[in-house]
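Dear Dr. H.,

I hope your travels went smoothly. While you were away I took the liberty of generating a structure for the chain from your last submission, since the lab meeting agenda had it listed for discussion. I wanted you to have the full record in hand beforehand rather than looking at slides cold. The sequence, exactly as received, is reproduced here:
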Amino acid sequence: MTINTSETISDHFSDYLRPVFSESVEHKNHSFRIRHQVYCEELKFEPISEDGLEKDDFDNHSYHSLIQHKSSGLYAGTVRLITSSSSSEKLPIELYCREAIAKPKLFPDNFERNDICEISRLAVPLEFRRRKTDNFEGAAVGLINKETYSETELRCFPFIAVGLYLSATSILLAKNINHCYVMVEPRLARSMKFVGLPFEQIGPVVDYHGKRAPFYIQPKKVEENLKADFKALLRNIDSELLQQR
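The corresponding predicted structure, in token form, is as follows:
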């Protein structure tokens, strides 16, 4: 069973999933718990925390977005947008992967600090994925447990990761941030390009929590590059997040 029309993809996603953007402690903790499950317990990229929350200093100058599964109330994914208001608030790509950027004109410090952002910590909980063995690939693309949810719901869940990136885009446009960076596996970037998200690779693959490469995104160009069906999804996400602001 497949989804073929723009109305179906967007409406089907909205039937079962909703983006959430809130700066409340409660919603931030939902994000931190998902991150702890994926990045500490599953992938072991970060140490286990006694409180079950994965946090770092970047969270002090970040926005957090979630995708919620409507019928259960559970959160099906999270993503973080790290911002910068001064030279003291460096992005992770500046601190740890600057040498990986092969296009000097696109160094973050070429732009105003309040005009840059880095997307990071995209994660989808285990119960929304198909197999435990998917590990990071499953976390990235939103594969889910087929025995837990209906066949109808299953048709929209592969778009969880896309929904997270489109939610991030919506937030960046609302905040008027024009230059965005992300360190991801090239395979994931290719998947995002398939739906029209304009991920521009700006350097080689390096070993940073696995094999990843630096990519550059201009939020204002996202909608014009998206395929028609995902433009409709972005518009729905925009509408939903507008009500929450």
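Two observations you may find useful: DSSP finds nine helices and eight strands in the chain. The beta strands are 17-21, 62-69, 75-83, 116-123, 179-184, 200-201, 206-207, 211-217.

With kind regards,
E. W.
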